[in-house]
Write a structure and sequence with these properties.
Tetracycline Repressor, domain 2, single chain
């Protein structure tokens, strides 16, 4: 009879559960992950998981705390700016890091718990704020330092990724207060001002963009969209068979608009530097005008069914590739992988920072353009030559 070997419970089981929850929340979103899914990844029963956490909301809070602890570690090192940026890039380029749990999950936390975690998140960034010299510049630099996934997807060697990330963060830190006086006010999402489209279909799409930005995809129902658009439920279903179809259409039309605008930029010049500047200006303009819709590409795409998500990803890749060709032509020191990572990072930072620049539309565009040039390291950047 074979001898049975008893399995010991790992001492770090709680940490393994939190890490698994973080990965699944980032990959599929809070609502589409179950406690059983998380337990299965760790190799425990759901009842065993409940010994550590009361439920999914508790797991989400623990995942956010894990993210904040990494930020505390990243920004808790040297006080001088070069040393801090180098240490932070090293810490935040970890391949197992999940960086969007807080951004996408805070709406699902209890209000008091979310407020406590936000205060701790801001406190973690305080050393960076002191080193950079202002709250808005600190957020801009932080946005660069949290684009590790762009370098990972581009398969950039870790040492090279750190070199590029630190150079980009240094360039952004050198931009000064970005015309804001150093103060940051988080801009509200989902502004409901302006005229409602006359078309029922367009009114529904406009309402969906606003509601998704305000509440998140899963907190919005088709009835909510119909009510906000002033149309009945059956009429809405005539245009869109399900809510994910609304989301997929919002994202697809954004990418179509970006690609269409970029085609005009490319046809207007034979100079790659001018074309890249035009591409950046186009992206900034679309972000300022339709940023809530574009944000869905970064935060809500996981809720689109896989068969519809794949063509969207291809569209996004085609758009990025156009930028990559231009950036390599402007910066021969970059490989295609380097350029791919910097382009992705730039687009992500612009989408993040549009909510952190408390300026009028002209000032916001100018600030985002300066940030974009600094991350790309283009000649028009005021940060000087790059490595």
């Amino acid at each position: 009879m074979p001898e049975t070997v008893a399995q010991r419970r790992p001492r770090n089981r709680k940490q393994l559960i939190v890490a698994a929850a973080s990965r699944q929340f980032e990959r599929a979103g809070f609502h589409d992950v179950s406690v059983a899914d998380i337990a299965a990844e760790v190799g425990v029963s759901a009842s065993a998981l409940y010994r550590h956490f009361s439920g999914k909301a508790g797991l989400l809070a623990a995942a956010v705390e894990q993210e904040i602890e990494l930020l505390e570690q990243a920004y808790g090192g040297p006080g001088d700016l070069p040393g801090l940026l180098d240490a932070a890039a090293s810490a935040l380029l970890r391949p197992d890091r999940t960086g969007s749990v807080w951004q996408r999950g805070q709406v699902f936390l209890e209000q008091g718990r979310a407020a406590d975690l936000e205060a701790r998140y801001l406190a973690a960034l305080e050393p960076l704020r002191r080193a950079v010299g202002g709250e808005v510049p600190a957020w801009a630099v932080h946005s660069v330092l949290t684009t590790g996934r762009a370098f990972e997807r581009a398969k950039v060697d870790r040492d090279r990724a750190q070199e590029l990330m630190v150079a980009a963060a240094t360039a952004v830190a050198g931009l000064g207060d970005l015309g804001t006086g150093g103060a940051v006010v988080r801009r509200p999402t989902g502004s409901g001002s302006g005229l409602r489209p006359a078309s029922r279909r367009e009114a529904a799409l406009s309402a969906a963009v606003r509601l998704f930005a305000e509440r998140g995809f899963h907190a919005v129902g088709m009835d909510d969209i119909g009510a906000a658009a002033g149309i009945s439920g059956p009429t809405l279903y005539h245009h869109f068979p399900r809510k994910s179809a609304v989301l997929a259409h919002v994202i697809t039309r954004c990418l179509d608009a970006m690609q269409f605008d970029l085609a005009g930029v490319l046809s207007a010049t034979s100079d790659p530097a001018q074309a890249l500047e035009g591409a950046l200006a186009s992206l900034v303009r679309i972000n300022v005008a339709q940023g809530d819709a574009l944000a869905a590409l970064f935060t809500e795409l996981v809720h689109v069914p896989e068969d519809e998500r794949a063509p969207i990803r291809r569209m996004q890749q085609d758009y990025v590739d156009e930028w990559v060709v231009l950036l390599v032509a402007c910066r021969p020191d970059l490989s295609r992988s380097d350029a791919h990572a910097l382009v992705r990072a730039t687009q992500s930072v612009i989408n993040t920072m549009r909510l952190r620049l408390p300026l009028d539309e002209v000032g916001q565009r100018d600030g985002l353009l300066r940030i974009g040039r600094a991350v790309l390291g283009t000649p028009s950047s005021s940060a000087g030559p790059r490595q």
